[in-house]
């Protein structure tokens, strides 16, 4: 946010008059700076809060320091604003590399400053289980630590031989949820199933396909990629997962609960006499039908408790559960299919808003992975796919989120480098109308104002000219994608 250069300036003593006016849009606000002081009117309390973020922007970079000044001079302006989408999200993967509570609280402050309102926590995966479940203590006793970690991709393989681990207690997570709520951010938990569950199987081998492999020999996964070891579909396993989710629901009040549903290879089910018998018993036809049945089960289970299931777009395979919301990550097509079928959609295509993907073809880009997604590319992102634009189905797009997977980001500095400044571009893309957005103006504002704000907040972002020497990772090979992006030829 910037003010006209010729706007008259008035002193600000830190006092702000606030009120709620339901005539304004939800999360919308009107900020008035005049000779008689500052007033923020919000359509609701969230709108008042977002108005305060704009006031911080007008005050200058020091207002973003934890001990920064809340006084100074302000331009006389009237700002009326409201978000385009109600789901403006950021996903942080705390499973592959654990981010401790202090780091998550810090990211809540960062996304709040950018007017994002959803934090999606990817809490479980093959490489680590990060949420305390009291009735199943081995999930964290065993599943939260791995003995070593793969570095990069390719040959020769390189390893960090240090054990890696960590998890959140339930009290930690309640603190995170409360801290986010004070900033009008909803925390959406993800417990990924029936794939991406090797950490859980390592802790409780009976959850795996014991008639196909020796699940007792499995350890928490130490490398990356799609994993063949998935849950079985027995009733006892469903009861186990319901027990996990009961405790998750007690921690997280979010209406939406993410159950993953992605990258579930069917090879073990195809080879398993128990899985084949289960398919016949349920009458679901094949392995895709079995996965769909599991997702439908938890869709109903969550609905009975007043919650809504959300999952990655693979949950479309075999038929979509009635109340499910789809996160479209493999491109835009899953979101289009789901919206046209009457399902809500959150757009997060990996070709456009996966922040673990490389930011340039700069030779010093650290551990280059995926497609090039520049600051300009992210700024150009529009959550409404062209096939839905102008149709009645467009309203099914709740919004979008940017996803940060952490296979190659082992600490806060590395996450900062990949996330910023691209998350600032994403935030503007999901808040502002698509018409009239001007990248050159955005880049000017970044250089004139916003990089200084990121500096004040202590963000170790990627500089416009490329990585600084300490941000590089020489010798650790990446896996850059050379195939065309979605929609390119």
From TrEMBL:
EC number(s) on file = 3.2.1.52
Q: Where is this region: Disordered?
A: 462-489
Domain (Beta-hexosaminidase bacterial type N-terminal) spans: 16-82
Alphabetically list the UniProt keywords.
Answer: Glycosidase, Hydrolase
Against InterPro entries, the record matches this protein to: Beta_hexosaminidase_sua/sub, GH, Glyco_hydro_20_cat, Hex-like_dom2, HEX_bac_N
Keyword Magnesium in record: no
Where does the record place the Glycoside hydrolase family 20 catalytic domain?
A: 85-433
Pfam families this protein is in?
Glyco_hydro_20 (PF00728), Glyco_hydro_20b (PF02838)
Q: Which reactions are catalysed by this chain?
A: Hydrolysis of terminal non-reducing N-acetyl-D-hexosamine residues in N-acetyl-beta-D-hexosaminides
**Coiled-coil regions, chain positions:** none
Give the family per the record: Belongs to the glycosyl hydrolase 20 family.
Protein's UniProt name: beta-N-acetylhexosaminidase
């Amino acid at each position: 946010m910037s003010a006209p250069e010729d706007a008259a300036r008035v002193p600000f003593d830190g006092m702000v008059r606030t009120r709620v006016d339901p005539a304004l849009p939800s999360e919308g606000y009107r900020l008035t700076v005049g000779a008689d002081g500052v007033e923020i009117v919000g359509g609701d309390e969230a709108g008042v809060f977002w108005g305060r973020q704009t006031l911080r922007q007008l005050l200058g970079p020091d207002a973003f320091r934890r001990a920064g000044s809340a006084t100074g001079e302000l331009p006389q302006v009237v700002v009326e604003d409201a978000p385009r989408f109600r789901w403006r999200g950021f996903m942080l993967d705390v499973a592959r590399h654990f981010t401790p509570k202090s780091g998550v609280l810090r990211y809540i402050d960062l996304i709040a400053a950018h007017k994002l309102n959803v934090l999606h926590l990817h809490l479980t995966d093959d490489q680590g289980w990060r949420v305390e479940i009291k009735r199943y203590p081995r999930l964290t006793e065993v599943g939260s630590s791995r003995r070593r970690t793969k570095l990069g991709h390719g040959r020769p393989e390189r390893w960090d031989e240090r054990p890696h681990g960590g998890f959140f207690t339930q009290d930690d997570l309640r603190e995170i949820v409360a801290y986010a709520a004070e900033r009008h951010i909803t925390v959406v938990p993800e417990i990924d199933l029936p794939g991406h569950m090797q950490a859980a199987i390592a802790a409780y081998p009976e959850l795996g396909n014991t008639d196909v492999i020796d699940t007792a020999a499995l350890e928490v996964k130490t490398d990356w990629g799609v994993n063949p070891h998935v849950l079985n579909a027995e009733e006892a396993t469903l009861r186990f997962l319901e027990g996990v989710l009961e405790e998750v629901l007690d921690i997280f009040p979010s209406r939406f609960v993410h159950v993953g549903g992605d990258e579930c290879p069917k090879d073990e089910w195809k080879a398993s006499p128990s899985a084949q018998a289960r398919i016949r018993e349920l009458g679901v036809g094949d392995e895709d039908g079995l996965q769909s049945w599991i997702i439908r089960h938890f869709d109903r289970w969550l609905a009975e408790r007043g919650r809504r299931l959300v999952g990655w777009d693979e949950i479309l395979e075999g038929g979509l559960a009635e109340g499910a919301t789809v996160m479209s990550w493999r491109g835009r097509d899953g979101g289009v299919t789901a919206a046209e079928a009457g399902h809500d959609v959150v757009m997060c295509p990996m070709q456009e808003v996966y922040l673990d993907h490389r930011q340039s073809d700069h030779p010093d880009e650290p551990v280059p992975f995926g497609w090039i997604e520049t600051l300009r590319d992210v700024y150009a992102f529009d959550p409404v796919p062209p096939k839905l634009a102008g149709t009645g189905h467009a309203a099914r797009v709740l919004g979008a989120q940017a996803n940060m997977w952490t296979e190659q980001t082992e600490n806060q500095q590395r996450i900062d480098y990949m996330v910023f400044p691209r998350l600032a571009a994403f935030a503007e893309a999901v808040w502002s109308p698509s018409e009239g957005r001007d990248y050159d103006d955005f880049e000017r504002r970044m250089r004139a104002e916003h990089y200084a704000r990121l500096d004040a907040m202590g963000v170790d972002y990627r500089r416009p000219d490329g990585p600084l020497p300490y941000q590089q990772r020489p010798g650790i090979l990446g896996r850059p994608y050379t195939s065309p992006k979605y929609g390119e030829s």
